[in-house]
């Protein structure tokens, strides 16, 4: 399912003294199958953009097209249920939203809310729990007896069980240890491919953005500052650093080498392996050893 | 760094409930006055439990904790809590005021600080975390990172001698994270505060004076950043990671680039590459 934001503006508490412009003139295209990362400071408008992706917020100007549904300021939109089912959002710390007695019931809650039968929901729960890397036995346990990492996976399974076409992730690895972080991101990447999803990742982690995304949007002060492939975005790391954003460690290191050696590599390295090769060949070429 | 023992943990064991295993087992270590101690370890390794014991939110079933020589008990806990300020991961769970300045003032009022000084401290703390222009804002209008900075202001306004950061920067963006850490560093220097930071952020841990690695409720290793990051692949086994400069040093060596050691900082690595290969 394609999603596109066209010149979207959003004001919180519009037409009140508390009105605050959160985003303006935001145009982003998310064709089906894209892995998009949205990056920006706290307060840059990332979360506001995110909530437009399944019509939790309605733009105060501009247009959001989600599949065949158009969401605009002046149109009263009926039947957003389908949109909410097709676009699943995994919020920050999704484990805080677990509430049922058993893991199975918790996972089934979403799909059954959308009218799926109990049998079908249970079947989906079995599929989803394996997809998040947990075993079926866990379905009968209370979600509150699980570890933090397991709870997060259960919460994610709950979103997957709705069988969305688009999955939106808001800082999905916050609070996890480095291994947990890698496992969760690898899992989303695998799901993205297996389920042919569109994935939108809202993150602070430049490492994750450059590793997993095929497109990156940088938000700044409520506007799209830059968009492109990871290579395009990180070719001029100075811009990002000026905004006070991180660049991947690899890119930062390449930049330091280039400054010190007064040279320019032929490409922007996005993996440590690529960078190692470039440095090794640079040193051999300079060969005074 | 002075070597005055500020906190002494002696053979601590703790379990949350009888049917669950031990969250901490036979943990002993000291915390020295004025140091920055990083506590690292996988999720569920007992780091946060340790923090809760230090602040008397729970009491160990075995072993003892002394703060400034005073044994931590149900009686002394109120006295000890004045010395230890805690900043948690999620700022939404620790907001009490209706405005930013009220929130920072809350702790001060509770501690009977006189009004003039209170106003001064509120202003000072909020300036320190770069939130002074938000004085009259309501917390729900702030972003997560901004809220966290206010929470930190609330703690530093009380001028505790120890500040515990329980993954306090993990929800902040890079700039916010650096601002907060810089603030804490400054407080450590200028007010001689002791910092205990529970973190998954290796860049932060590298800059600590000392690191304690927890694993499955036990103290796995203790040492300087240099010593700890020598552990290398062992860290990966512990669900942790290796800092980027160390990773790169290793790969470069494999590619036949000669290096004197594995570097912890990018600057040092660049400098070594430069001097060893371009100067005779």
Automatic annotation (TrEMBL), chain A:
Residues 3-246 form the ABC transporter domain. Its EC number is 7.-.-.-. SMART domains: AAA. InterPro entries: AAA+_ATPase, ABC_transporter-like_ATP-bd, ABC_transporter-like_CS, ABC_transpr_CbiO/EcfA_su, ECF_ABC_transporter_ATP-bd, EcfA2, P-loop_NTPase. It is found in: Cell membrane. It is a peripheral membrane protein. It is an enzyme of class 7 (translocase). Keywords: ATP-binding, Cell membrane, Membrane, Nucleotide-binding, Translocase, Transport. Pfam families: ABC_tran (PF00005). One of its GO terms (cellular component) is ATP-binding cassette (ABC) transporter complex. One of its GO terms (molecular function) is ATP hydrolysis activity. Belongs to the ABC transporter superfamily. Energy-coupling factor EcfA family. Forms a stable energy-coupling factor (ECF) transporter complex composed of 2 membrane-embedded substrate-binding proteins (S component), 2 ATP-binding proteins (A component) and 2 transmembrane proteins (T component). PANTHER family: ENERGY-COUPLING FACTOR TRANSPORTER ATP-BINDING PROTEIN ECFA2, HEAVY METAL TRANSPORTER. ATP-binding (A) component of a common energy-coupling factor (ECF) ABC-transporter complex. This is Energy-coupling factor transporter ATP-binding protein EcfA2. It comes from Cytobacillus solani. The lineage of its organism: Bacteria, Bacillati, Bacillota, Bacilli, Bacillales.
UniProtKB/TrEMBL annotation, chain B:
It is a peripheral membrane protein. The keyword ATP-binding applies. GO terms for cellular component: ATP-binding cassette (ABC) transporter complex. Its main location: membrane. Residues 7-241 form the ABC transporter domain. Belongs to the ABC transporter superfamily. This is Energy-coupling factor transporter ATPase. It comes from Cytobacillus solani. The lineage of its organism: Bacteria, Bacillati, Bacillota, Bacilli, Bacillales.
